[in-house]
């Protein structure tokens, strides 16, 4: 393995929650932007360390892009419903158009003669465009027989405050890029290419740290100031693929290589949180705020010692600490890959920010990952007093397209 | 002048509208982030080419930061009204607190023991925090005698569709940074330090291209895909200071070194715009979309030949083209420094984006800069059919604080 690949793997595997770069080298000082290619986890095909602009993520592969890539600085989530009268035929044409557009966009190329030009001059900027199907899509297209069991509606949780207008949807597109204009251009293009086949159901904007904002790649922080993503599984972990991606030989062969995305708009009650003294914040989370290390000591990556008692005879990591409740070993090994964006949609009439986390998590089976963990958090997490789940959706995200295929072809044309 | 200063000046002066970097060199691979210092136009004090994170803008100087610096990737604009009962005394204490906080924030330091930690690990990321006073501030603080003539309300324009709730305000803070978490942290800190002295009146979020998204620094594009900012004056232009900053010896000595900011939320009717064929878009603007060159030929920086006629005997740059109407020579030399952010606040119920430009322009006297230009655009600009001014504000932005001073001290304690 060459040095470049080594560095690339480290960037990819070691910093799932980080959006930093250990070094940036700028390419051509003028003219066209040269494109580095960032692997999708199934194989890295070029130097990973390049300008913000020139990093390109492949559209084709075993998995769709936007699952294994490092967090991007800017994101758009958008759900569509099929228009009245549109069915399987229109869905086929739509997924063909969207796939063609996504491949061009991710290569940093304009999409057709009516391209708006917003992203012109910029490189691909690590753009990913990811497509998913909601439960209702299968009703609308007459494909109920191919609907995965895993798309059963998520159970209601006692702390849910869900807005149905901002939840669910026939189709879902996740857009991420390290440049806001590139991301917006992709969103506009996806909407334009949708034509009359669909209507926007909801749309949300998010962000993460910029590349190079920290001196070295680090796990992300959320808007509570917490290091968030430490416990994320790494592609090198045993069983990673099994936890995150649908294996071959399942009940729905078209989902092989795919994954299920749970999307939750989690409002953070930041004024309440920020008013809490640091020691109390750390007790709620079970980790130090400064570096994310467990309260039982060590560094960010040290395993929490859930059995350790303090001088007062109580657990050092409290019984209701978020880190304890959400730990895989407390949830039968439930493992999911979290890949969120933060959001901030302004300040409400009461002066509090409409801000929080666009939580997106990936798993082979939500009933063995998100659902049991959220059930436990819902009952006993000290963090619950400071957050509010305001929207929810679940999508089947098929595997990546092979050469000549469009996304979802194995579902729609099997 | 050293090479570093040369490059720094070029970055600063030659690319007011661009957010690119010709080269990025990362500092320490671990530990504290080293801070490069970016000049404020009055003198460059360190190497300008550094990581996204480590670039620091000085808080003190002849002018406040956030006027001459390159466009940042992320911005927050927020206006406050003094709380009932609050007056000059509270304003003094507020500006002291805000100045202390802004200086720490811009240095990448936490603000007090209750700092939320959102920006922890990141460097200053070119953060700027800029403060201004609205017309109503002088009534509330008993300082009407020191209210500049330049704060007379802007005239109504026929195409205005202004929302008073998102317009005006006693106080204004402009926040810009190359990292979204750093910018959000600054916004939260400004709100926290405001305490009970003020209430948020309105708040808007914006963005520009990320550093390094293009292979070389380039003038920005807006969400219409147009190169936007070509005609901006450069600090090296004759008369730049006179046009942008208030000179000594004026009617209000406290405004020496200051500037007036006009803020307009300009919604773009992007679906209408994008439906327009390229040739028509170019006729509306008077410039080529691909590279921003005038329709009369040359490159982006070539002066438009406003008298040139085409084979049909009509002006090559149409009579109602935006580039013609807004040209300084068509407006008695009116010159202002535009330094906007794009915005995108989601997709409305009709499926169209709530997106456009948070237009911010800087001038020594709005009645000789923004007002005459906007009057002319309002009457005859072909672009007017594709935009809608939805909010408006005008603020007096005092000069930068000297050592030991807080922002606005010369107004509040003279």
UniProtKB/TrEMBL annotation, chains A, B:
GO cellular component terms, semicolon-separated: cell envelope; cytosol
Transmembrane segments: 12-38
Residue ranges annotated for the Dyp-type peroxidase C-terminal domain, each copy included: 219-400
GO BP terms: iron import into cell
Pfam short name (any one): Dyp_perox_N
Residue span(s) of domain Dyp-type peroxidase N-terminal: 64-208
InterPro entries: Dimeric_a/b-barrel, Dyp_perox_C, Dyp_perox_N, Dyp_peroxidase, EfeB/EfeN, TAT_signal
Reaction catalyzed: heme b + 2 H(+) = protoporphyrin IX + Fe(2+)
Keyword Signal carried by entry: yes
Cofactor: heme b
Cofactor: record remark: Binds 1 heme b (iron(II)-protoporphyrin IX) group non-covalently per subunit.
EC class name: oxidoreductase
EC numbers for this chain: 1.11.1.-
Region of interest (Disordered), residue spans: 288-311
Alphabetic keyword roster: Heme, Iron, Lyase, Membrane, Metal-binding, Oxidoreductase, Peroxidase, Signal, Transmembrane, Transmembrane helix
Similarity field: Belongs to the DyP-type peroxidase family.
Free-text function comment from the UniProt entry: Involved in the recovery of exogenous heme iron. Extracts iron from heme while preserving the protoporphyrin ring intact.
Protein known as: Deferrochelatase
Organism annotation: Streptomyces kanasensis
